Amino acid sequence: MAGPLNGIRVVDLSVALTGPLAAGMLVDQGANCVKVEQPPTGDVTRWLGTSAAGISAMFQMANRGKRSVVIDLRQDEGRSILLDLVAKADVVVQNFRPGVAERLGVAYEHAAAVAPEIIYADLTGFGSSGPYSHRRVYDPIIQGYSGLAASQAGKGSEEPKFLKHLVCDKVTAYTAAQAITAALFARERGAGGQHLELSMLDACVAYLFMDAADHEVMLDADHSGPQAVGANNTPFVFKGGFAAIAVPTDDEFHGLARALGVDSSDPDLATTRDRTRNRQKTMDFHRQARENATRMTIAEAETRLEENQVPFGIMRTVEEVPNDPQVVFNELLSEFDHPTAGRIRHPRVPTRFHGTPTEFAEPAAPSLGAHTDEVVAETGRSDHIVSLREAGVIG
């Protein structure tokens, strides 16, 4: 595919979601990526969730367009093959537990020895050192430690609630992809290669503090309100459906009043500052708005909210999203036939690069080891592929 990262070469040693998604975002934007998998089963996410023929939905999304090579990095020749790949690469992504890359001989110092200009992204759960660094980590663990799960507790309940998707993996992946492109940009300006360290905990605490840890940021301010700006966001219930409504500005607040037939003429409700000072009256207003909503059909609500320029969204089920009129108009989703896994529907690269447009040369995630022979041959070992496979170095 073309794209803004066309010509950038990535070696992806990572498994699960954080590292593969970070590398996958680079691929979506034009980079070439070799995914190095360990025998005999490869990346664990091949088999998690809805899957067919070793391709799960999550694996497809995080690994589309990559080339898969199976190499046993515990063997000297396997490590040698990897370092030959690294020598020609721009980026390495790995998410081994601290100490594993060093034991395998594929840590930053080993990569930099063969590729001094390499951008080496070292992704961990808690960090490369510290009291938790040795622990195994998956998304829910970081949801707990970062405060994300506790921030989902509702009024009257202190029980933490998990977000029902792998939010910490994804936040860390997005953070990592941005950091990698920043490092590539710095290298273009003469800064050279560098070692990047990012933990899931660090990425997700930073994510939380943006809008959901107000008291921990504003240490000397009034803490009588909630920690999170969005703490009171709950769906409006209408006949036949639900809607998300947000009215932070004065015009939007009074538009909601008109749309749902609630009196907002009280001077204590006039402006955002007035409503903040008079919380009880504001709460009474919203209670009345929600009560009125229950007597209105979702179709009526959509018309009235739009007429009064109230920001709203009809709440779709996941199954409804592909047929949403705006999603269809945006041509966000497309289908193709995967060579082994059957029919696949997935979103295009979400950003449209008008100067460096992206197109999938290969939309499919690779079957395990599908490109082993091809990639190993590129290291000058085409005459040794049979013997390497017999020795278990490659698969």
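The record above closes out task 2.4. Task 2.5 opens with a second protein, given below.
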Amino acid sequence: MSRKGDNIRRRKDGRWEARYPKGRRSDGSILYGSVYAKKYGEAKQKQTEALRALSADGHPSPLPLPSPTFQTIFDSWEADVRYTIKESSFFLYQTILERHLRPYFGPLRADQLTQKHIQDFLILKRREGLSPAYIRSILRLFHNILRKSQLPDIQMPSLPQPSPKGLELFSQQEWLRLKNYLQRQPDDFSFGILLCMYTGLRVGELSGLRWDDYDPDHVQFRIKRTVQRIKNAAPSSIPNIPRTHVSISSPKTPSSIRDIPLPYCLLPELQLHRGPSGTYVLTGTRQCMEPRCIQKKYRRLLADCGIRYLNFHSLRHSFATFCIQNGSDHKTVAELLGHSSVNTTLNIYVHSSLERKRQCLEQLMQ
């Protein structure tokens, strides 16, 4: 078959065929059209006219690039945000991408995304038993990726509000027994748990608390770091690298960086345990105790003093509730906890006790 010019050939039947690009297929490959003539010049003229017909201004229009797949979009988003957010936040988002978003949306092109894809994804995740709160986090991340990538937004389905976490509270008797037990212990860990009981610290904040964070002039601690164990960026790329590492970083939110006054009743214990600058409160050394170790020791501690096991976060939960029940205003408690909104304190941590509910009902009968 003889060829002449741009994409023009002579067929076996003697005619000249001129091909021209007129679009792209769904997989991104170029879709060609063809015109035929008995002479080369006529085929060339027909090719030119066909190209002009595809353009309003008389010049061949550039073919649109194929829409990227979400696999590519996710890769680009990860590269953009890698060093702009906290390390712990990045690996949380990366986990959501790898477990949920990439397997489902990865092969899909951006221009193929429809509302039905979102609805089917939601149904799938519900069948997998994920909580509404976690599904909400997944969809919120997907929405943010669409917005940051300047892609057409898809209306996210409404989800049922997550139910309260249902953390249990220590009773007043358990609280008093635990306090008395801790005050009799000589170790730094017991003092740290006692401190947590009366300040509402998170476990990561307690882990990262050092003695140079203490201000003796104002009798207060400055909360300015938190400790977490997170996965390494690429554990398989380097031989013998552990899958996770301990991360010491700034607290959860800007409002979590705060000053917490120390109750004067704890000053005698503080003087007994106070270490040099640079050492950690829980260990008395320059090495911190990571949160999972704290939780293990905390479980053993409750068993030693004969108290039922409650999640470590129940210390913070109980602290907030007892403060409100004793007449503290909500704003003060929110600032002590490091919440940016009072509503967070009210909706999550503060619950009316059974006795208060009973008093409320008894007042109606008077």
